[in-house]
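Minutes, project check-in

Agenda point 3 was the complex the collaborators sent over. CS summarized: two entities, 669 residues total, and the question is how they sit relative to each other. Sequences were read into the notes so everyone works from the same version.
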Amino acid sequence: MNEILLTLFNGISLGSILLLVALGLAITFGLMNVINMAHGELIMIGAYVTYVVQNIFVNYVPEQYFDIYFIVAIPVALVVAAGVGMLLESSLIRFLYHRPLDSLLATWGVGLMLQQLARTIFGAPNVGVSSPSFLDGGLTIGSLLLPYSRLFILGLAVVCLAGIYIYFYRTANGRRVRAVMQNRQMAECLGVSTRKVDVITFAIGSGFAGVAGCALTLLGSIGPTVGTAYIIDAFMVVVVGGVGALFGAVAGAFGIGFFNTVFEYATNASIGKVLIFLLIIAFLQWRPSGFVSSRTRSLD
Amino acid sequence: MQKAIYRTVFQNRKLVLCILFLALLLAPLFLSDFRLNLLGKFLTFAIVAIGLDLLWGYTGVLSLGHGIFFGLGAYCMAMYLTLEARGGRLPDFMAWSGMQELPLIWIPFQYPIVAIILGILIPAAVAFLLGYLTFRNRINGVYFTILSQAMVLVVTTLLIGQQNLTGGTSGLTNFKTFFGFSVNSSSTQTVIYLVTVVMLALVFIGCRKMVKGRLGKVLIGVRDGENRMRFLGYNPSIYKTFVYTISAALAGLAGMLFVLQVGIISPTMIGIIPSIEMVLWVALGGRATLIGPVIGALFVNAASTGFSESYPDIWTYFLGALFVIVVIFLPKGLMGVINKFQERSKQINVTNVNKDPNSVKVGKNISGI
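CS then shared the predicted structure for the full assembly.
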């Protein structure tokens, strides 16, 4: 019984991590149809921002306030990653909106350069970020120990999801974004500045990658390739979830997280990966355009 | 005189290709063993690039997973070579993990002919299955690209995880003989090199025949307007699956030739980064031209061997920048640049010819090689 519950919790926890990583992608890939392969490196930037903020706190802030660093790091990571994303959009991606596969290759190149940059600045070995003391330990339920850091990530994912939902579905800006994504020319005719919408949307997607990077520092040491470990899974989340719907990403993340944990528990890590891949292929036989798909009559 | 040479070079590409082919065949006379080995390795990459171009350049399907097909071919060959080198005993990594007898999946690889056939059939079969299951449902092209990359992750994890069957991260190496000939001797290497050159030429000619014919037109139609082809009564998914299978088989063939010349295959050589680098060769050389990917593969690998050993950091920056530059400034690749020059030289010819009112000769259309 306990083992079942623990597997369930691990599945939910992995799902929340995937969701956090995939939220940014759900915006840039799902809404804007841009395959940003540098998304993993934006996550890495978020992780290194956390590391830098931590070091600043160690050096310049009295010790008793050290734990606050993590709370400070989250918005800083959001802003820095969003800034890098904005730069990326306005210098590169805006030329490639009609060539999704080309944007994939170009952003892959950017990712490669960013990784090397991180290696040059911070060195190739991984660096550790000491998690704040209020996230040490865990919640004990019966004989189960649920680590606070995992619970915190779950909470952070929910907060981010709620924030994104409110922005896209409850504000005038969000309505403009959805209008542009649904029918660009029509939105333009009605006076929406599509350029502005593109930049802002992409920056938001990138910013959440930064937040995800911040959260990943709680799970282990970070290195230049910290993002690449998650990026393919995150893309799978969006593919399974379906393009253009936040709910799809949530379903995809928890579905993949849950089955991944179950398969790995039942077999081993490498066979589990094969099984989850086969499951995704099988799932796409049933729902070729993902869990939530918007109906359209347009062709090509 | 110079102009005449210039014209022959640009307007008679078949001749140029024949000369290049002869030069490659004669290369063993001029190059040291080490250089020849490198060139042979690059030529196997060129075979992959041609196959990938068939899929991406002509059919419009981008696969980020060709490293896997290359690797499957390479592993098939390497499994045979390992068994041959151990002469009936179990490979070390199996013995260490406590195995008593040869596992079932290794048994067919005792026979070289079977290994060679499987080295082509296995990649083709994997590609057929994945292609059939994705193209049949009209899964978005971008989805397919992501799935193909996920497959790389899955297969490399499997190769590393099943250490007792695959040798894990260190892969398969320490080969001795191939059909009884020592693989390390210079004469065997020269023969394998020549086989590679001939294979490349055959693949090139075969693919050229394919894309020049009706099939090629259909593929381009699928690339440029899939739904329109469907309305015309073609089934694009059959064509896509077919090309994907062919291109995986070519990658498998290249992998086998690779392992014979390089003498090692490991999961890192076929992982995500090598797979996407293969796409770069095609993009740099020029999509939808068959010679372009060959040039791209040779160029990137020659540059990488030259640079990356002395300046690995700068090389990574350069490689990253190359992706961006090719996509933004050279969408048609190096062949696009050459074709542009050729157009210009043709225009000069046409204007010269037009001065003579009796002549209506216009430069022969030879684009698309």
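Noted in discussion: The beta strands of chain A are 138-141, 144-147.
Follow-up: revisit at the next meeting once the mutant set is ready.
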